[in-house]
Amino acid sequence: MVTPISLPVIDTVFELLRQGQFTQAEYCARQLTQYDPQNTLAWKILGTLMMRDSDRASAALPILERARQLAPKDAETLNSLARAYQAIERLDDAIAVCTQAVALQPNSAEIWNNQGVIQHKLKQRDAALVSYDRALALKPDYVKALDNRGNVLRELDRPEDALRCHEQALALNPNNADSHNNRGIILQTLKRPQDALAAFTRALAIRPDDVQIFINQVNSLIDLARFEEAIICCNTALAINPDFADAHYNRGCVMRSMKRWNEAQTCFEKALAINPNHVGALNNHSLLLMEKGRFDDALAGFARASAIQPDVITTYSNPLFTLNYHPDKSAAEIFTS
To answer: Of 115, 162, 186, 253, which one's alpha carbon is 20 to 30 angstroms from that of 224?
Structure first.
């Protein structure tokens, strides 16, 4: 409900949104919720604006819940609420709310895409694919849905289909860093590191401060045995974000490939100091400990890795590899420890 006295403020909010002045629009919407707490549109706009930054999802959640109380059948409010739940990893709540939104507004490509994102996070990949297909049937030039569909197809081990999705996205928007990055990941999967490197380079030209793209580029450089360049990429990523565990981990992988064992160990330890549950760092650090004859420490590291990620084969093969060199432990002791 919008009271007559609130209309000039709402008009101001919409004009600020039209001009791209989102901070000022948010301020006006917040003021309006205080002045007119029954104003459904003010709560909806405020919560949606806050969700432009997913780090503010926890703060946006009560705002959007209030909007839902005032307008329980507003699909756009429900969609924003689902995104807030998704951002704070309350995925069951997110999918329940998003299902309501899509039932209320089945012709919204954005809501179908959002449902696909949540289903993907829930590892419901086939269902996510259906949602992305519905979004694209409604909006064939929906770049985000094409990229999201490609990411699901990659996880379903359909890399060629995934590559087509990302290339379609790039045909629509050649300056989309995400599409170039996603294309690079697929090319890396297809054992085309030179092409992958070119894709990551294009992505970084568009978004030069994205540390994850630097790390993806490192993987291609390692495959091409261009180790010095890989170190430069890791160092650049760490200059941007010194607390990025993957950058320390990948730097360790480069050092290990160069047989610079002590530097590799230091890198893995830095990664683990930031993220103690980094499985790649745990496994690689443990392998280095094994090579130094510290078998019990290595086995302890492998055990931690297997507890975090029990469905990965290396969590079993690495301890067995260590067993071949351990002077005291038997196979039975390894498997029962």
So the answer is: 162
The answer to whether 151 touches 183, Cβ cutoff 8 Å, is no
| Rounded Cα gap, residues 296 and 228, in angstroms | 33
**CA quadruple 209, 211, 212, 215: dihedral positive or negative?**
positive
Rounded distance between C-alpha atoms, residue 10 and residue 27, angstroms: 12
Q: Give the whole-angstrom CA distance, residue 181 versus residue 188.
A: 11
| pTM over 0.90, yes/no | no
286 Cα distance to chain centroid: 27
183/165 Cα distance (integer angstroms): 9
Answer whether 113's CB lies under 8 Å from 105's CB.
Answer: no
* DSSP for 153-197, written as a single string: HHHTT-HHHHHHHHHHHHHH-TT-HHHHHHHHHHHHHTT-HHHHH
Nearest to 135 by CA among 121, 125, 124, 149: 149
Helix (H) or strand (E) holding 48: helix 40-50
Residue whose tokens read 């704070």 = 88
* Residues 146-176: tens digit of each pLDDT: 999 999 999 999 999 999 999 999 999 999 9
Q: Could you tell me if 76 and 44 are in contact, meaning their C-beta atoms sit under 8 angstroms apart? A: yes
CA-wise closest residue to 169 among 149, 189, 185? 149
pLDDT, tens only, 69-93: 999 999 999 999 999 999 999 999 9
Q: Quick check: 301 and 267 in contact, CB under 8 A?
A: no
- Residues near 113 by beta carbon (within 8 Å), at least 6 away in sequence: 131, 132, 135, 142, 144, 145, 148
